[in-house]
Amino acid sequence: MSETRYRHWVLMGDPAHFSVQGGANPHTRDRWGRRRSVDRSKAIVQWQHLRDTLRDLGVQVLVVPPDPAQPGMVYPANAGFQTDVDAERPLSEKTFYLANLLPTRAGEKAHYRRVLEAAGFRLAEIDERYRMEGEADFFPAGDHYLLTFGGIEKQRFVPAFTWPPWKRVYGFRTDVGVAPFLEGLVAPRPVLHIKLVLEAHYHGDTALCAFGPSREFLLAYRESIEPEAWSQLETSFGERLIRLSVADAEHYAANSFTLSQAGASHLILPAGVSETLLDQIRERGVSPVTVDVSEFLKKGGGSVKCMIGDLGPVAVDHDLGMLANSGGRTL
Fold first, then answer.
1. Residue 291: is its pLDDT beyond 70?
2. Is 279 exposed, middle or buried (0-12, 13-18, 19+ CB in 10 A)?
3. Which distant-in-sequence residues (6+ apart) come within 8 Å of 187 by Cβ?
4. pLDDT digits (tens, 9 = 90+) for 1-32
5. What is the DSSP string of 184-215?
6. pLDDT tens digits, 70-111
7. N or C: less crowded end of the chain, CB within 10 Å?
8. How far is CA 13 from each of CA 127, 139, 141, 254, 306, rounded to the nearest angstrom?
9. Letter string b/e over residues 152-180, b meaning 16 or more CB atoms within 10 A of that residue's CB
10. What domains sit in the chain, N to C, each tagged with a CATH number?
């Protein structure tokens, strides 16, 4: 009997209708609060390059078809999270939990459900009482899971003693109240609660990135994390923690995608991060790969990892027959 072989799968969203519709994070608006305008042709070329980079590394890309009413689907790291994402087990033994997104992106959920169900993934829901934005705020890191969160705010403009004399309140995306449910899913693996404090780093995957063969190393931006939570990270990761410079952090170096398969470990980062950081990654036996996705960061507030939903290893002989009817595509 032959041994089952696995191939890493990811979810990406077709960028044909990428635009800033809700303006729901600080990157999406200028200093006057006006929503930024996307250079869609440039964005499509960058998206294709990222997709091709993944494909060249042996990754199977499952593409969510575009919907002009849901331009945020180019960031499917918010779609949800896959339990035991790194385990080479049949999909029938793993579950993808669909996220509860902020109101301006809630309509994406039905699209993710349709495409993932057709591809054979087992799906489940999170209690609708809780805002929870998927693997962007809940992901494995070494022996732990990290749950990142912050205050959930009604997004709005408020008066300010600045020029212009107002500012926009954005808040964060995941409610810490969901913690007991998530802890039950991954027990006995411990979950560290990491509170975020900078709205420009509104998801955990913009401030933290676990990478390496066992996700044992951690990129971390100290200024975006509550001091008590930072102490937890230092205690848990020790010398395996790489503190990001402000310049690299603001370039969303933490918003990178880790990939380990076939005995090789890579980290795909946004182009423009420092050579110092790239050397630190190489020193840990991981090969860095940089890709320019600047249009997605500067206009939409998401970089490499935001553009990738991690579905983990899938058996190479997995039946894709239903995809043609779903509108989903594999590449």
1. yes
2. exposed
3. none
4. 468 899 999 999 999 999 888 778 877 888 88
5. HHHTTS-EEEEEB--GGG-SGGGTEEEESTTS
6. 999 999 999 999 999 999 999 989 999 999 998 989 999 999
7. N
8. 25, 20, 25, 20, 10
9. beebeeeeeeeeeeebbebbbbbbbebbe
10. 6-330 (3.75.10.20)
Q: Are strands 329-330 and 60-64 parallel, antiparallel or unpaired?
A: antiparallel
* Rg, Å, the chain Cα set: 19
First to last CA, the chain: 29
pLDDT higher than threshold 60 for residue 327: no
Hunting for tokens 């020790």 — which residue is that? Answer: 238
Residues in the chain, how many? 331
User: pTM score > 0.85 for this model?
Assistant: yes
Kindly compute the dihedral angle of the four CA atoms of residues 187, 192, 196, 202, in this order, to the nearest 10 degrees. -40
Task: Find all residues with CB under 8 Å of 42, minimum gap 6, and list them.
Answer: 295
